[in-house]
Amino acid sequence: MSDRDGNSFVWFLAGLGIGAIVGVLYAPGSGEETREVLLSKAQEGRERVRQEARKAREQAEDWMDRGRDAVNQQKEQFRAAYEAGRSAYRETTAAGPEPPSGV
Q: Whole-model pTM?
């Protein structure tokens, strides 16, 4: 998760906590109603955390796939260059030494 996303998430949690405290202090309803509201807000927060974790995992998997593809592409390019060099060497050595030119 990037620093910006992590920072936003921390602020979200801080706001959730402050909102819960203010809600308890200024709650017009009974204790039971207040507990139900707090429970529903906690469940919303828990679901939000699950969603963010899911997004982070998917993003990490995407980055891993991209990295793996880049490495495989580099390996294939290296392999092709190696084979081209090897083939050129074989062709040169198979032809034998060239006679001296005009000397």
A: 0.47
